[in-house]
Write a structure and sequence with these properties.
The protein is an alpha+beta fold. The chain has helices at about 25-40, 90-105, 120-125, 185-195, and strands at about 10, 45-55, 60-70, 75-80, 105-110, 115, 130-135, 140-145, 150-155, 165-170, 175-180.
Length: about 200
C-alpha cells in the first residue's frame, strides 16, 4: 500500500538504487566537485572541504563550505555529506538546520548516497536546505511523473566525464520535484542566490 506522499517516514525514490563505491572522504570531495560545476558565475567564490567553523558555543566540523558575494553582500552555505545505505530522515535534516543557525550561515546543502524520506524533503524545503542525492550519470533512471507514480524515463541524465550526477529534490506543497543537476540545469546556483 502506498502512503500519502507527504506522510512522515515515507521514502521518496526518484532514482534507481545505486551503490557508490567511495570512502566517505572521497564522497565528500566528489560531492563538492559536483557543486562547483553548479555555482559557476558567482563572484569571489570560495569552496572549502572540511572546514572548522568557530562560534560562541563551540566548534563545528563542516564537510564543505561555500562563500560568495553578490553586490558586496557575502552569502555563506554549509554542506553536509551523508554516505549512507539507509534513507535520510527528517531528524538528519534538522541537525543540519541547527548547524546553519548556530554557525550564522545563510543556507545548507545535504548531499546523500541514499534516498530522502518525504518528511525530510518537506522540512528542508520549508527551511531553505537543498537536498541532493547522487545517482549514476548515463544509464536509464527512474523519475516520478506525478504523485505516487514511478516511471522509466527515456532521457539519460548526463554530465560530461562524471560517473555520478546530483538530483536536487524539493517539495513545493503540491508534490516533490526532482532537478537533475547537469551542465545546462544550474538549479543549485539559483537556489543559492535566492534569499
Amino acid at each position: 500500500m502506498i502512503k500519502d506522499e507527504l506522510s512522515e517516514g515515507v521514502m521518496f525514490i526518484p532514482t534507481l538504487e545505486v551503490n557508490i563505491e567511495m570512502s566517505p572522504i572521497e564522497f565528500e570531495k566528489y560531492a563538492i566537485e559536483i557543486l562547483k560545476a553548479q555555482i559557476k558565475g558567482l563572484e569571489n567564490i570560495k569552496v572549502i572541504h572540511n572546514k572548522i567553523i568557530e562560534v560562541e558555543d563551540g566548534n563545528y566540523q563542516i564537510d564543505g563550505y561555500i562563500e560568495f558575494e553578490i553586490m558586496g553582500v557575502k552569502y555563506k552555505t554549509i554542506i553536509e555529506c551523508k554516505h549512507y545505505k539507509t534513507s535520510i530522515t527528517r531528524e538528519k535534516v534538522q541537525v543540519l538546520y541547527e548547524k546553519i543557525r548556530a554557525c550564522g550561515v545563510n543556507k545548507g546543502i545535504l548531499i546523500s548516497t541514499s534516498n530522502f524520506q518525504s518528511g525530510a524533503i518537506k522540512f528542508a524545503s520549508i527551511h531553505g536546505i537543498a537536498l541532493i542525492q547522487l545517482t549514476e550519470s548515463g544509464p536509464e533512471y527512474q523519475t516520478r511523473s506525478r504523485l505516487n507514480v514511478i516511471m522509466n524515463s527515456p532521457r539519460t541524465p548526463y554530465v560530461e566525464g562524471a560517473k555520478y550526477i546530483g538530483v536536487m529534490q524539493t517539495n513545493f506543497g503540491s508534490g516533490i520535484t526532482c532537478s537533475y543537476l547537469t551542465d545546462t540545469n544550474l538549479s543549485l546556483g539559483e537556489f543559492l542566490r535566492m534569499n
